[in-house]
Amino acid sequence: MKPTTSSAETHDRVAALIAEHRGQKGALLPLLHAVQDALGHVPDDVVPAMASALNLSRAEVHGVLTYYHFFRREPAGRTVVQVCRAEACQACGAEDLLKRAEQVLGCARHDTRADGAVTLEPVYCLGLCASSPAIQIGDRLHARVTPERLDSLLAGVKEVA
């Protein structure tokens, strides 16, 4: 991922969020969520301030930030397509769906298309294990996705994006 350089305004917003969460027990996850809600992502260059304020190492903050698939270190595309890669989905064809999504969207996994229209993310567990394979487009979950259904769903994404 390319480094993100944040503006003074961004740092001020993050400082206000840090002040709001600093005294909270177990503040790191709520703070990361708040920063992402405010900015759309958690820029790498705000990690040191969060770590210092919460008396954590930068490595601890970075570890949490990169462990959870829902945190972004860069802005996402206008539409986010997530393909579940957990075991149940993998057993039911998720890898083929992910490859197909890359072809249809013209976007590599873990990447945002150059026009900023779509981000394609492999994720680990969308919580629909009994209805595998699963994908999520924006905030909408889709279960038992076949290659044909994927094409239909992604056609809608290409039209909107």
Automatic annotation (TrEMBL):
<dbReference type="Pfam" id="PF01257">
    <property type="entry name" value="2Fe-2S_thioredx"/>
</dbReference>
<keyword id="KW-0479">Metal-binding</keyword>
<dbReference type="InterPro" id="IPR036249">
    <property type="entry name" value="Thioredoxin-like_sf"/>
</dbReference>
<comment type="similarity">
    <text>Belongs to the complex I 24 kDa subunit family.</text>
</comment>
<keyword id="KW-0408">Iron</keyword>
<keyword id="KW-0001">2Fe-2S</keyword>
<keyword id="KW-0411">Iron-sulfur</keyword>
<protein>
    <submittedName>
        <fullName>Formate dehydrogenase subunit gamma</fullName>
    </submittedName>
</protein>
<dbReference type="InterPro" id="IPR002023">
    <property type="entry name" value="NuoE-like"/>
</dbReference>
<dbReference type="InterPro" id="IPR041921">
    <property type="entry name" value="NuoE_N"/>
</dbReference>
